[in-house]
Amino acid sequence: MDLIGGGIIGVAFADLEKAFLKVIKTIARFKSTFKRLKATMDAINLIFSDIKKLEEILERPEREIDFFAEELRRGTDLILLCSKIKSWNLYKKYVYSKKLQSFDEVLTRFFQINVQAHQLRSIRQVSKGVSDVSLKLDVVKREILDDVLEKIDSMSVTCSSSASSRKYRGSAYVGEIPELVLGLDVPLEELKVMLLKDNDVLPTVVVLSAPPGCGKTTLANMVCLDSTIKEKFKENIFFVTVSKAVNIQITVETIFKQKGCLDELLQVRSDEDAVNQLGQLLKRIGGGPVKDPILLVLDDVWSPGLEAFVQKFRFKDIPEYKILVTSRFASKLHWEYKLKLLSDEDAKELFCHSAFPSGSEHPKISDETVNKVVKACNGFPLALNVVGLSLRGKTEETWKTTLIKWSKGRSSIFDSNSLLLNNLKTSLDALDEEKGMETLKEGFLDLGSFPEDQRISSPVLLDMWVESYDLDEQGIETYSNLLELSTRNLLNFVPTRKDDSGDLDDRYCNGHFVTQHDMLRELAIHLSSQEAIELRKRLITEIIGKGHPKDWVGMLKQPLTARLVSISTDDTFTSSWPDIKLPEAEVLILNFRSKNYALPQFMEHMNQLKVLIVTNYGFSPAKLENFSVVGDLSSLKRIRLEHVSISSTLNGSLGFQLINLQKLSVTMCQIGDALDNCANMFPHLREFEMEYCRDLVELPVGICDIIHLEKISITRCNELRLLPEEIGKLINLQSLRLNSCTALEELPETIGCLQELRLLDISDCLSLGEMPIQIGDLKGLRTLHMRGCWGMFELPASVEDLENVMVFCDKQTADLWEDYTNVDKILVKEDINLNWLNH
């Protein structure tokens, strides 16, 4: 023991530690390597302490002692040499960094193998000289051996470079910081501001939110190790990893342990008891006369009950008590700091650090190829690291082959990167374990049906999910699902405008859209493609160029069971479709970019089709052809057409009737006279929507013959000037929206015949000069939107006949109602959200 603890090795180790402490204060050129070496030395000190408890002096071969002592002396000289290397000498930095790593491995190996073997041999010798063998062995095993071996085993974790490893620093178990950290300098400073300010200035709880693998835990570690934070909170920084298995009692026990007062924790009988004891401890620390500041870091709290869990750890009467939470969930109640993905510059640097280790030989890869791979990772730190490692040392041909496979859908970025897949997949796995979340997971997987880097309109998802999952048509459940997925950082929910109108259609899906990170979209596609092609619930495929994907060969062999089918094509697609059999498909999504586009002929046999979504992502409206294939689809209930010319399309399809079509939506389309015969084509239509249709001057008279219509929404059609007098025939109409039709000059007098009309929206109809006299005949009207009707200077006297009406208006239009007490005027404070322009 003298040889190890205080003799030859002890002296050599003491010299090494002195040199290390002297140099580490002044040198920053080997930061990460020195951190690992310091961890090894800390672990060695702990083992020295336990060895002293275990046994008296035992014989060891002098050759082994001398060898290790010599290694310690060599390490001392090496550390002192490192302090003399100039910061600009990259070659020497690399050489000596490798030498330090080698020395660290010598220390680790000696204490993992040699010392462990030494201890086992020592135990045998001790047991030999003890009369009561069973008692002595029990004492040694229980009180000493397990503790020693646990420290030796944990040393391999402590000495590793894994960012998830933990070691004791002050009062917090803080993890290792990766060798290269990018994009976290600004978030670190912003978080420090939140944590250093008093609670009456900034909130007590800050939730650091981002998808998994974005660096939340690394940033939290950096916060705890920051000198300014440590100066304020000193020994009262507590770092607890919560993870999936949320356990309040274990969390409380961990805090007591980190404070060094575990013996003060009485027997815990319940969660409430544990929280009460923690409150007493923290109030004793931070609520007394001294008022020591306290920082509690709850890492990886990704339970859906985030708010309820965090609330347990909030205590009053502690003036300088802060809680930092990291979670893949967004917060609804607490201050949220959303961690952004890496910039292009930082993403490339992180990737190159992973793919091209400094000082090593590697194949020459062109900058163009590197940029393409980096772009495919979309600033996702975990993806950049994992993909970089997978391509390290590979030829450029291998890199290019990988890119080709990704672009053509023949393979996924997740196929060879199980770490990345498993990390992102955990958020979805949690949905499987939560009751009632099946629809939420299915909805996430549906998002892979849309092209990357494109906004997805929430009404589109509403149409899909109403028919696929039997959600309510008003959009309450769809809206709720989108918010929940956004809370879990599985998509970005982007409202283009919010106001306090209280109108259900405004509050839910109208006017909003979602975006999704490309890595999450790729995850949805990957998970949807795990089964054999004939058994998949979702068939998501992309056609680039004139050929067809290879998996289409499998599609042609037998009928497919897909419920949702999404086919995306580029601008070179020739509309040459194979004969695919999709007898069970309920939703068909067609995404394209060409100037001319023909609907696939195989649609005529899709007898279960309920929803058809056709979207042109090109620059100009595309001519849509072969629309007649939908003529015999009796199950079709909803059609959405975007950025297409439908004049010749519908006029050329007069021979069919979609007798069960309930909703027709057209956006940014060229209309012409296509809707003149719509009463014959869609006799049971209940909802009709038009948006941004610039050639619409007058609402087609044919629409007024669809007597089953309940909702008409014509918004942002800036050329619309007139509504036909025949609109009075729509006796079942309940909602009429004419929002932002800036050229609309008047409403027809026959509007008074719409006795079922409950909502009228004429907001931002700037040219509307007056209300029709018959407005007072609308006995069923309950909601009137008329913000921005600045061309209107008076109201007809008949408005006195309106009853139980809420008028949503701005200050100017409110003045028009000043003399009328029969309505409730509500001034709307609009919040025009321009953040959507960045998506």
From TrEMBL:
<keyword id="KW-0611">Plant defense</keyword>
<dbReference type="InterPro" id="IPR008808">
    <property type="entry name" value="Powdery_mildew-R_dom"/>
</dbReference>
<keyword id="KW-0433">Leucine-rich repeat</keyword>
<dbReference type="Pfam" id="PF00931">
    <property type="entry name" value="NB-ARC"/>
</dbReference>
<protein>
    <recommendedName>
        <fullName>RPW8 domain-containing protein</fullName>
    </recommendedName>
</protein>
<comment type="similarity">
    <text>Belongs to the disease resistance NB-LRR family.</text>
</comment>
<dbReference type="InterPro" id="IPR042197">
    <property type="entry name" value="Apaf_helical"/>
</dbReference>
<dbReference type="GO" id="GO:0043531">
    <property type="term" value="F:ADP binding"/>
</dbReference>
<dbReference type="GO" id="GO:0006952">
    <property type="term" value="P:defense response"/>
</dbReference>
<dbReference type="Pfam" id="PF05659">
    <property type="entry name" value="RPW8"/>
</dbReference>
<dbReference type="InterPro" id="IPR032675">
    <property type="entry name" value="LRR_dom_sf"/>
</dbReference>
<feature type="domain" description="RPW8">
    <location>
        <begin position="1"/>
        <end position="149"/>
    </location>
</feature>
<dbReference type="InterPro" id="IPR027417">
    <property type="entry name" value="P-loop_NTPase"/>
</dbReference>
<dbReference type="InterPro" id="IPR002182">
    <property type="entry name" value="NB-ARC"/>
</dbReference>
